[in-house]
Write a structure and sequence with these properties.
The chain is an alpha+beta fold. It is built from six helices and seven strands; from the N terminus they run βααββααβαβαββ. The chain has a seven-stranded mixed β-sheet. Helix 1 (11-24) packs across helix 2 (28-39). The protein has one domain: Aminopeptidase, CATH 3.40.630. The chain has helices at residues 11-24, 28-39, 69-77, 80-86, 107-116, 133-141; strands spanning 2-5, 45-51, 54-63, 90-98, 123-129, 145-153, 156-164. 37% of the residues lie in helices and 33% in strands. A hairpin with a 2-residue loop joins strand 6 (145-153) and strand 7. It holds the Pfam family Acetyltransf_1. Keywords: Acyltransferase, Transferase. This is GNAT family N-acetyltransferase.
């Protein structure tokens, strides 16, 4: 298994979009602009996992900054003390996707570990659906803690997870 950078305008980027579609039931045409915009954010890092030529996982994130929708929505929703702790000097893990046949093999952990190597922020945050118990279990077993819930996005209850890096 090889981990390579996830960058726009590469075949691996488009394969990651197709994997995202398979996992989430969304069309790459609707997610591609979002993935591309995130790649332009300060501190962007992303990786794909290749098994031969097949993309079987991906992850990416970037620095959390005031003025960006996600950061500002979280800041408005969280109690002040939680926002101060978790949205200061923070990296956002935006996406993690692993092909269903490759789950529970350690690939998700490898991808997250690689993504966070070299991140200079003191904390990292992410959100996952509150009823996605498999994802919650994964994050809790790998050192994350629920720091705020519910965080409602487009009518969906989400749980905000955080992890201290330094």
């Amino acid at each position: 298994m090889e981990l390579l950078p996830l960058a726009p305008n590469t075949p691996h980027f488009h394969a990651a979009l197709r994997l995202y579609e398979a996992i989430h039931g969304e069309r790459p045409a609707s997610t591609e602009p979002r993935f591309r915009a995130h790649a332009d954010h300060t501190g962007y890092r992303g990786f794909v996992a290749l098994d031969g030529q097949e993309v079987v996982g991906f992850t990416y994130g970037h620095d959390s900054k005031a003025g960006r929708d996600y950061h500002d929505q979280l800041h408005a929703d969280m109690p002040r003390s939680v926002a101060t702790e978790w949205l200061t000097d923070t990296f956002e893990l935006v996406e993690l996707g692993v092909a269903p046949a490759r789950r529970r093999t350690g690939l998700g952990t490898r991808l997250v570990d690689r993504l966070l190597e070299g991140v200079t922020r003191r904390r990292v945050i992410l959100t996952t659906e509150s009823d996605n118990h498999a994802a919650q279990s994964f994050y809790e077993q790998t050192g994350w803690e629920a720091v705020h819930e519910p965080f409602v996005v487009s009518g969906v209850d989400m749980t905000v997870y955080g992890r201290r890096l330094a």
